[in-house]
Design goal:
142 residues; mainly alpha; two-stranded antiparallel ribbon; 8 helices; globular; disordered N terminus
């Protein structure tokens, strides 16, 4: 997600500066380890204000992050979850505009009372969140 001039796999598209996931970069980096410092950059870029939301979205414990040196690498699974969540943030921004990040952190009845961030910690949960976003935008049954 875009953070100032830095971006984490997301670029501004041509249509009114809408965010677009760079899928080629995401495919390349999804199986790579990332530096622990990238989690803080992602938090700022995503617009999340609560560290607990980031930790729930990426399944990283607070102690892991607090002990990790900025250049220490995290498991490649964290990278994959970060990319999935980035894709969902982009999609939520397409549907809700500036309120997309807020929607991602609010509990939802169709997600067992979890927020989309909490529910999308694996690809199956991410698919359900995408399905809900599509139903909201285009109408239809979830």
């Amino acid at each position: 997600v875009v953070a100032g001039k830095r971006n984490l796999f997301v670029m501004l598209g041509r249509e009114q500066d809408a965010p677009v996931l760079n899928r080629d970069a995401a495919a390349h980096w999804a199986s790579q380890s990332i530096p622990a410092a990238a989690v803080n950059l992602w938090m700022k870029a995503s617009g999340l204000e609560r560290k607990k939301d980031v930790l729930a979205a990426l399944l990283v414990s607070p102690s892991t992050l607090s002990r990790a040196k900025p250049d220490a690498t995290l498991d490649a699974g964290v990278t994959e979850r970060m990319l999935r969540q980035s894709e969902l943030f982009v999609r939520a921004a397409e549907v809700f505009g500036d309120d997309g990040a807020t929607w991602m952190t609010k509990p939802h009845d169709l997600l067992d009372g979890k927020s989309p961030l909490e529910y999308a910690t694996n690809e199956f949960g991410g698919a359900k969140v995408r399905q809900i976003l599509n139903a909201i935008e285009y109408g239809g049954v979830v």
